[in-house]
Design goal:
The complex is a heterodimer of chains A (924) and B (307). Chain A is an alpha+beta fold and 924 residues long. Helix content of chain A is 34%, strand content 25%. Chain B has helices at residues 5-32, 43-98, 104-125, 179-182, 200-213, 216-269, 273-299; strands at residues 146-148, 154-156, 164-168, 171-174, 186-189, 195-198. Chain B is rod-shaped and about 140 Å long. The chains are: A alpha+beta (924), B mainly alpha (307).
């Protein structure tokens, strides 16, 4: 018989377990991650009792954990997605509130700055307004710094948050590994304790808040976790092992952050983190913080550059050119935080224009005049700048070939910039009639051969396309003139020049204490071999006319010795001594040992000369020779004339047969090597001081560069000391020539140069005016004036003088650098106008800033919308999970009643069974 | 579908806090009477507000500049008006001196008076504005416009700069007349036929000398020159009168512009109080409803019936 008491006992025990489970559910109603447990009851096997089967009661089959893997995974994914929007929304909003705030944003400071500029422009001489302007400049510098430091704060905060998130991820993965360790004790998931699985799922859910996780579960419930796009990439939990992750901040771009997997083991970059708060923080820093920061920095740079440019175009209250208003502190980490006001003195605010005009008090016309400046158009035309046109090396090998056509016999070579020092230009390999000409842009001929009588050449030359100012006229008044009557006091020379050589002397502290002077030496090249002499009025040495040099005998060429003698007849006046010499240097590598050699018609026995010294000995062994050879340690053979024959030509050939050009032992072509001249000038002292005047071999009335070339000298145009104005260099005369140049110094700003050189515009008649440099009284330009033009104006190198009505004869206007026009507000108006100028792309400063803030605002808005949508998804996932795994107290209460009643019933059965048993026992 | 107890409470609390946040925002908006509390609430609107505020600040600036300039041009105009009447008197005196009836003592008196009037003109030409700047010196505002040079002649010392000040985005007005265009030169032709410019005060001094000496030709020349001098002053006066009229007109334009801008700003920045209060009441009502309904629902539990 199936045991009634047994069945009751089983049932009581089963319902006790069921009640315990319900109690546990009730107790854990508020426990995070708890999955409701359900009791599964099972009927015990039936036992046969005769022909029937009797049940044997109930037992608890198992306690089931209410759980759905798909829903859990769904919840984790939605948690990751939602968490990734959170930092984007919060921090972007914060950045927008910082940047776009009425008081905190840049706009109010910009408005204040421009407002001050505008007020100052209404009364430029007011020191009070100038102080306000400096104060508000300070204000905007401070505002840039404040915004930058606020962004720094956000950056530091998100960095901390990233670090802490990474720390928590590492803790969670370690805990998961421990849970996995516990789970390995059972074979199947059903056999696992519920709380262990709950813990596993809770850890996974927490982890998914930081980053999207890929999971794979094994039969016994152990989990493999990866942070990468697939389960096999970037695995952080595998069985009992957990890999750490770490952040890597980029010093160069601090907003960029990279994640590293296993930083202390085998580091690899972790790029697959796409959602979760880690990804949200990273994308905030890159998309919002980085771009905001760089936009603010570039705005600061543009603002500083533009306002400094304007300030530097003006004149401050001291009459000086404005200095930069702002500077960028190089020690600061970024531009916005680096803006500083460069000065505090309000008088240094450059409110005034750089030029102004003053009419002479006795002008007859009532024209009122004004001055303005814009870069001169002619500076963009004509020859290229010297630095671009020629290399800074005056050796003929560095020269540029100039081909002058016959029809337009002039070619522009270079434009010498104002401010260069010690410019030397050489005309090499010239054709007869060619000249080097240096002119100003207004046709003042400074160096060269006068073109006063060549009006057609002037016409061809003085054109705007050659770099000349419109209406320029030719003048030779300053041609080759140095000293007090020179063009702007420049020192110039045309001809061949050699300076006293100065070598610096260093003192014990390695400072240059002085210079040692060496005599000037003008070394000529080999003579041309001309068949004629020099005319009487051709050449002038150190200001002394040299007279005529006789033609050489018919058929003969000009000999260096004869030239030297001719020059030395004037040594007493010129102080210059000429010597003739002939020296041929041949490196031994060029020598052809064993080849025949004939020098000056004398055969040299080269048969046994197989090395350098052998050839030297062979040459020196030649009878009746007027030449001699020696060798140097460098392996050179030097062939010269013997004493008493200096300056004679040396001819070299292989044979005495005229016209033969067969190979000779010296390896040179057959021909005549002509002698060279060198001119020296002893150092002179006057009153104990060195006189350092150069040797200057220039031209008389009829001399030309080809006369100098006959003597082996190169013609040059020399400017000793500073160049005071832009000069144009031309070669005139048809044919090929080459030009080389050397120079020192730097070009100066044309505008500043104009400021320091006030000019006077004087109307010599109603239709013609001259422009005079006031400092040197140099007449800079003479031009025609058209009194009928609508807006009468005069332009000189970019400086414009506008007149309201045509000037009268004798009227004078002075244009100067505005040293004392304290009331002038021109530049401050330009500063105020910066507010409306499109300087950032095609936007104004203010609009560019507002747009940037707006853009971040839009990013935040998008994130916010995404967050709302994802919240709904997440809520649904939570609801779905709770529908299965959540505890409902009402349901538990029902279960409680149900199991309680069953328990009571089972207890009653037991009681009945006991009574039955007792009944049996009472049978006597 | 089963609603777990936890979920019931979580949902209720999050919904309550959402309504509460909305109500708090409405309350804050009402407190400051602004639509946008933080730029992040409405970035586009905040940007528009900032832009408008910049433009308003600029126009306020133009208005204040307009007032500054007006007072300066006014000083100029006043000085030129006085110079005008002084010149009229000088002309009367000069005519009196040239009539044959004047004897040397009368001419002496006349010369004395013209001399006095000429000094008065000099002080008018050297007028300063409220900040002590010389009005007629061009940009050399710290230098008197006219002063005696070493040769005794009174010459113009300023420059020819005419300064412009912006009183609108597209509008700049000149704020000064160089003294040499108001107190003009006259062109004098000497016996040889050469012409030269003679400065304003030199011409007057020559007239005084002529009257003193009884030099008829000098007096006649002076008389004709006074017309030219007067003409110059009148023209300058007319110009500054025009400038004042332009400035007044510009002032009106600026007032209009600023009013328009302010009302545009008000529309996007200020809060519609009636709508906002209605909204807040609605929010409070729904908050109360949510609270009381939650209280009711949360009381329902099977456990209440387990006695």
């Amino acid at each position: 018989m199936s045991d009634m008491a047994g069945i009751a006992g089983n049932a009581v025990s089963a319902y006790q377990q069921a009640l315990t489970t319900v109690s546990n559910n009730i107790a854990n109603v508020a426990t995070d991650g708890y999955s409701r447990q359900d009791v599964s009851l099972v009927a015990l096997p039936v036992t046969p009792a005769g022909s029937v089967f009797l049940g044997s009661g109930v037992a608890v089959d198992r306690i089931m954990r209410q759980y759905n893997a798909f829903i859990e995974s769904n919840l984790r994914n939605s948690t990751s997605d939602l968490a990734s929007q959170e930092p984007m929304v919060n921090y972007s909003n914060r950045v927008v509130d910082i940047m776009g705030g009425q008081t905190m944003g840049l706009n109010s400071a910009l408005d204040q700055f421009f407002s001050s500029a505008r007020q100052l422009s209404a009364d430029a001489s007011s020191t009070v307004l100038r102080s306000s302007f400096v104060r508000d400049s300070q204000g905007i510098a401070d505002r840039f710094a404040q915004l930058s430091s606020q962004l720094d704060l956000v950056q530091a905060e998100t960095q901390n948050q990233l670090d802490s998130a990474v720390g928590q991820v590492n803790t969670l993965t370690r805990q998961l590994a421990l849970v996995n360790g516990q789970l390995t004790k059972q074979r199947t998931e059903n056999a696992q304790p519920s709380d262990l699985l709950d813990q596993r799922d809770r850890l996974l859910k927490q982890l998914s808040g930081f980053a999207h996780v890929n999971t794979a579960f094994s039969v016994n419930g152990t989990v493999t976790v990866s942070l990468g796009p697939t389960i096999t990439q970037d695995v952080v939990v595998n069985g009992n092992d957990a890999l750490r992750i770490a952040t890597n901040f980029n010093a160069a771009a601090p907003e960029k952050v990279a994640l590293v997997l296993d930083p202390y083991g085998r580091p690899s970059s972790l790029t697959g983190v796409t959602s979760g708060s880690l990804a949200g923080l990273m994308s905030f820093r890159e998309q919002v913080l980085g771009s905001t920061r760089s936009a603010l920095d570039s705005l600061a740079q543009v603002f500083v550059k533009e306002s400094n440019t304007i300030q530097q175009q003006g004149i401050d209250a001291y009459g000086q050119v404005g200095q930069a208003l702002f500077k960028l502190d190089p020690a600061a980490a970024n531009s916005a935080g680096a803006v500083r006001v460069a000065f505090e003195d309000p008088l240094r605010v450059a409110a005034a224009a750089q030029f102004r005009v003053i009419a002479a008090t006795n002008n007859t016309s009532s024209a009122s005049a004004s001055a303005s400046y814009s870069a001169a158009p002619e500076a963009k035309t004509g020859p290229a700048l010297l630095a671009n046109a020629l290399v800074n090396n005056d050796h003929p090998s560095a020269a540029r070939v100039v081909n002058v056509s016959g029809s337009v016999p002039l070619t522009g070579v270079a434009a010498i910039s104002n401010g260069l020092q010690d410019v030397s230009l050489y005309l090499n390999d010239l054709q007869p009639g060619q000249q080097l000409q240096v002119l100003t842009r207004d046709g003042r001929h400074v160096i060269g051969q006068s073109m006063a009588s060549e009006t057609s050449l002037q016409g061809l030359l003085l054109k705007p396309e050659n770099g000349f100012a419109a209406g320029a006229s030719y003048s030779a008044s300053y041609l080759n003139v140095s000293g007090s009557n020179a063009y702007k006091g420049m020192t110039v020379f045309y001809g061949a020049q050699a300076k006293v050589q100065l070598q610096p002397v260093y003192n014990s502290k390695d400072e240059i204490s002085g210079n040692t002077a060496f005599p000037a030496l003008l070394q000529g090249g080999r003579l041309e071999g001309a068949h004629s002499g020099i005319a009487a009025t051709s050449l002038v040495l150190n200001g002394v006319a040299l007279g005529a040099l006789a033609d050489p005998p018919a058929g003969a060429t000009l000999q260096a010795a004869a030239v030297a003698t001719w020059i030395n007849t004037k040594t007493a006046q010129t102080g210059v001594t000429a010597t003739a010499s002939n020296e041929i240097r041949i490196h031994q590598s060029e020598l052809k040992f064993g080849m025949p050699l004939v020098i000056n018609g004398l055969s040299v026995d080269t048969a046994s000369a197989t090395h350098l010294n052998g050839l030297v000995n062979a040459i020196n062994g030649t009878a009746n020779a007027t030449f001699q050879a020696r060798s140097t340690v460098d392996g050179e053979l030097i062939l010269t004339n013997t004493s008493g024959n200096e300056g004679q030509d040396i001819s070299i050939a292989a044979t005495n047969i005229a016209g033969s050009n067969s190979l000779n032992a010296l390896g040179q072509g057959s021909g005549i090597f002509r002698a060279q001249l060198s001119l020296t000038q002893a150092l002179k002292t006057s009153n104990g001081a060195d006189v350092r005047s150069p040797i200057q071999l220039g031209f008389g009335a009829s001399g030309t560069p080809s006369d100098l070339a006959k003597l082996g000298f190169r013609t040059g145009a020399f400017i000793n000391g500073a160049v005071k104005e832009d000069l144009l260099v031309f070669v005139t005369g048809a044919g090929l020539a080459s030009v080389s140049a050397s120079y020192a110094g730097q070009a100066v700003d044309a505008k500043q140069s104009l400021r320091s050189q006030p000019i006077k515009v004087e109307f010599t008649s109603a239709t013609r005016y001259t422009i005079t440099d006031i400092n040197t009284s140099t007449v800079l330009a003479e031009r025609d004036f058209d009194p009928s033009q609508l807006d009468p104006a005069v332009s000189y190198q970019g400086l414009h003088l506008s007149l309201t009505s045509p000037a009268g004869a004798g009227d004078k206007y002075t244009l100067d650098g505005n040293q004392d026009g304290t009331g002038n507000n021109d530049n401050m108006r330009a500063m105020a106008a910066l507010e409306n100028r499109a300087v950032v792309g095609n936007k104004t400063l203010t609009n560019s800033y507002i747009d940037q803030v707006n853009e971040i605002g839009n990013i935040a808005r998008q994130a916010s919308i995404a967050k709302t949508a994802l919240t709904v998804v997440h809520d649904q996932a939570v609801q779905a999970r709770d529908a299965i795994s959540g505890v409902s107290l009402d349901k538990e209460a029902a279960d409680l009643i149900r199991y309680q009643q069953a328990y009571q019933a089972a207890a009653k059965v037991l009681q009945v069974a006991t009574q039955l048993f007792d009944s049996v026992l009472q049978i006597h | 579908m089963q609603i777990s107890t936890n979920l019931l409470f979580d949902r209720a609390s999050s919904q309550l806090s959402t309504i509460q946040n909305d109500a708090a925002k409405s309350q804050a908006q009402i407190a400051v009477q602004k639509q946008v509390l933080h730029p992040s609430d409405a970035p586009d609107q905040a940007a528009a507000i900032t832009r408008l505020k910049s433009v308003i600040s600029r126009n306020d600036n133009y208005a204040s500049n307009q007032q500054t300039i007006y007072s300066r041009v006014n000083s100029e105009s006043t000085a030129l008006g006085s110079a005008d009447s002084v010149l009229v008197r000088i002309k009367e005196l000069a005519i009196m001196a040239t009539t044959g009836t004047s004897d040397s003592s009368t001419r002496e008196t006349i010369a004395l008076e013209i001399q006095g009037l000429r000094d008065q003109l000099l002080s008018l030409a050297n007028s300063t504005d409220t900040t002590g700047n010389y009005i007629f010196s061009g940009s050399k505002v710290k230098t008197p416009a006219f002063a005696a040079q070493s040769n005794g002649q009174v010459s113009y010392q300023g420059d020819q700069t005419r300064m412009l000040v912006a009183v609108g985005d597209q509008r700049s007005v000149p704020i000064n007349h160089p003294g040499s265009t108001a107190f003009v030169r006259v062109v004098r032709t000497d016996i040889a036929g050469t012409t030269s410019g003679v400065e304003f005060f030199q011409a007057l001094d020559d007239l005084v000398g002529g009257v003193k000496d009884g030099n008829t030709s000098a007096m006649q020349r002076g008389l004709s020159e006074i017309d030219a001098l007067h003409e110059g002053v009148i023209q300058a006066q007319a110009a500054s009168g025009t400038a004042m009229a332009v400035l007044e007109k510009q002032g009106e334009i600026l007032d209009d512009t600023r009013l328009n801008l302010r009302s545009a700003l008000s529309q996007i920045e200020d809060l519609d109080m009636a709508a906002a209060i209605t909204l807040m009441n609605k929010q409070l009502l729904s908050l109360e409803a949510a609270q009381s309904s939650f209280a009711k629902i949360s009381q329902l539990s099977l456990f209440n019936y387990l006695k």
